[in-house]
Amino acid sequence: MSYLVIQILGIFALLVESLSYWFKTKKKMLFIQIIADIFFILHYLFLDAVVGCAMCIVALMREILFYFSKNKKQEQIICKFIILMCFALGILTYKTFLGVFPIAAAITYTYTLTMASKWIVMGGIINYSYWLLYDIISGSIAGIINDLFVIVSNTISLIKRRLEEKKKAIK
User: Fold this and answer.
1) How far apart are CA 7 and CA 134, in angstroms?
2) Which has the closest alpha carbon to 162: 132, 118, 109?
3) According to DSSP H, which parts of the chain are helical?
4) pLDDT digit string (tens) for 26-37?
5) What domain range includes position 142?
6) pLDDT at residue 39 above 90?
7) Of 109, 63, 101, 60, which Cα lies nearest the Cα of 83?
8) What total number of domains does the chain contain?
9) Range with the lowest mean pLDDT among 86-95, 134-143, 158-167?
C-alpha cells in the first residue's frame, strides 16, 4: 500500500478521534473512538509499526468492553484485564525502547476510562503525549498531527468545561 494512502487512513482516524472528546458522555466518546481505532489499526499495520498496531487492537477491545459495561465494578474488571493485555502484548511485540510509549499510553488511558468524562479528556492529553513520541520516531505523520490536535483539542475542551462550571456556580 502506498505511503500516501497509509497517511490518509491515519488522517481520517485522527479526524474521527478528535471529534470524540467533544461529546459529554462516555458512551458517545467511546462509540466514536471505536470507529477511529479501526482506522488506526490499519494505519499502524501498513506502517509496520507493530507495537502501535497491537496497542490499537487493545484500544479497540477496551473501548468496546467499556461501551457495553454496565457499572463501575465491571469497569474495574475490564481495566485490570486490559492492563494485563497491554503488558502481555507489549512483551510479545517489544523490539526497542520505542515500544514502551504506546504501552504506557494504553495503560494510562485505560485507567482514566474508569473515571468521569472530564478525567477521560485529561487522560487523553497524557495518552497522546506518549503517542506523540512514538509517532515521531515511527514516521506516522498522521499520528503526529493527531497527537498534537487531540492534545490541543482536549486542552480547549477542558477549558470550555471549566468555564461552563464557573457559569453554573455563579447562577
Assistant:
1) 15
2) 118
3) 3-20, 26-47, 50-68, 72-93, 100-112, 117-138, 141-170
4) 889 899 999 999
5) 3-170
6) yes
7) 109
8) 1
9) 86-95
